[in-house]
Amino acid sequence: MIEKLNVVPFVSVDHMMKLVLAIGVERFLVELADEIETDFRRWESFDKTPRVASHSKEGVIELMPTSDGEVYGFKYVNGHPKNTREGRQTVTAFGVLADVGTGYPVLLTEMTILTALRTAATSALAAKHLAPRGARTMAMIGNGAQAEFQALAFKALLGVDRLRLYDIDRTASVKCVRNLAGMGLDMTICGSIEEAMEGVQIVTTVTADKQNATILTDNMVGTGLHINAVGGDCPGKTELHPDILRRSDIFVEYPPQTRIEGEIQQLPPDHPVTELWQVIAGRAPGRSDARQITLFDSVGFAIEDFSALRYVKRQIERTGLYEELDLLADPDDPRDLFGMLLRAQAAAPTAA
Questions:
Q1: Helix 147-158 vs helix 170-180: crossing angle, to nearest 10
Q2: Which residues pair with 79 in a beta bridge?
Q3: What family does the entry list (predicted)?
Q4: Of the residues 137, 157, 158, 252, which has the fewest C-beta atoms closer than 10 A?
Q5: pLDDT of res. 81
Q6: What is the percent of the chain where pLDDT is above 70?
Q7: Distance of CA 297 to CAs 11, 17, 186, 321, 328, Å?
């Protein structure tokens, strides 16, 4: 693909949008979910650590690293709910892949759009293993930037084609309906969470406020439901009443991280949970009873970003949708970095 040692392929926001549209949003989500599922099956081959977080009263900035011994990847991501009041995104991100053998980066890419895609793909992948068989109706509580991606992922992977939408800001629900028009979804904007929950088999909660909120209470959750809890993703930020957790079979990505950041931060540290990779690999049961309440306590984990980065790298090699970024020093003699600087000085035009 790229032979020059100083050049790293860079995927800008513009190129990422062109790549997603060239592949097709639903196909992209399906293929990305397949990539994540493949990596979850080899979960034990990855380095794993809770993300490194820097918290402030305004939000959080995080680094999410992992490696499979051959390729290293990390994501920089923030979460600042107040940003929308200033016309900014709540979440922005970029990511890097590097060759473990040389330490050289082999990809730099935007990950704001890619994170939305990988979060939705992971949600639908979990639901494929945990939701009631044949589920077609989903409540979406919180209709902001993530909502359309979640809806299309559940449609593409599970065949969910009926959405019941609720947001405290009705304009967000209207936006969601407008954006998803003509995509094969039957959508209803509801006036309350209780109304949105009527007749659903799946509920996705994806709100943004950085607080311990109670989006769902125990009386709203009937037997047989699958809950896809996306919004709780840092200390002090949850969406579900603890009584729901006590009634549910809980599935998580990486317990040491989820116990700090997820819904289960509300429970004792020894409360039993099942790791999603074990279900995918056939080492633990997922949904085993029609009356069972399953809860995917989704906080996002570095292996999912690793999968997304590898997927994008393959796609840009095929499509050429990237720029060449002069990122790495490449002196004629690897031991003579200062000489490279002197040669640049000598080659610079003389001021008149």
A1: 50
A2: 60
A3: Belongs to the ornithine cyclodeaminase/mu-crystallin family.
A4: 137
A5: 83
A6: 97
A7: 30, 29, 27, 34, 40
Distance (Å, rounded) from C-alpha 313 to C-alpha 99? 13
What's the whole-number mean pLDDT along residues 194-199?
A: 97
Structure-token pair, residue 272: 């039993």
User: What mean pLDDT is reported for the chain?
Assistant: 94
Look up the CATH architecture of domain 7-113+304-336: 2-Layer Sandwich (3.30)
Spatial distance between the Cα atoms of 230 and 122, rounded to a whole number of angstroms: 10
Query: pTM, whole model, 2 decimals?
Result: 0.94
Strands 186-189 vs 162-166: parallel, antiparallel or unpaired: parallel
Q: What is the mean pLDDT of residues 56-76?
A: 95
Would you name the residues annotated as active-site residues?
233
Would you say 20 and 12 are in contact if contact means Cβ atoms under 8 Å apart? no
Q: Which residue has the tokens 């979460």?
A: 79
| Cβ burial 71-96 (10 Å sphere, 16+ → b, else e) | bbbbbebbbbbebeeeeeebbbbbbb
How many beta carbons lie within 10 A of that of residue 1, not counting itself? 11
Give the three-state DSSP class for 136: coil
Protein fold of 121-301: Rossmann fold (3.40.50)
Extents of the domains making up the chain? 7-113+304-336, 121-301
Mention every residue, 6+ apart, whose C-beta is less than 8 A from residue 237.
Answer: 209, 210, 211, 212, 213, 231, 261
Give the residue from 46, 58, 2, 11 showing the smallest Cα distance to 209: 58
Taking residues 70-74, what's their average pLDDT? Answer: 98
Report helix, strand or coil for 334. coil
